[in-house]
Amino acid sequence: MRAERPxxxxxxxxxxxxxxxxxxxxxxxxxxxAYFLTRLDATAEEAFLLGGVTITAWTWLQGAFGALVLVxxxxxxxxxxxxxxxxxxGLLLVLTVITFYRVVEAVRAPADPIFGGQAxxxxxxxxxxxxxGLIVVPLYVLWYLNRAPARAFYRRRPLARxxxxxxxxxxxxxx
Length: 175
What we know:
- By secondary structure, the chain is mainly alpha-helical.
- The protein is built from eight helices and no strands.
- α1 runs antiparallel to α3, α1 runs antiparallel to α6 and α4 crosses α5.
- The protein starts with 12 loop residues before the first helix and ends in a 7-residue tail after the last helix.
């Protein structure tokens, strides 16, 4: 005879959508941006023709944070350790503030008439187009990670059992 395993909360679809959006906006996009800037900086002649593409420490840091976000999203999708949702929220807030700062700087800074070119104007336009995603994705992820189905998934208990345990232990539930 097989011993019955305790029931486990399934991964909600909304959680999968939140993690996919986070991985795309904060993981894949920064990695692709770092990759394309590295490719554009392949030779000095290409960089001169395209207009001032330089690889800075920010580019490498951006790629490292993108990889870190993908690792944290994979752990959050798996659901272990249970505290990973707090790590994801903290990382998401920090990266949102940093990226929002980059968008504001891209809008405020005047275009460089000497070294500015196609690459600089494309990057400025790309950063401005990121603004709606910087508002919608963090709000959705913060909202969904704090909903009862997501909390039950990370606790590895079904939602009905979580509510029954809190009712038996005497905790009041909000109406």
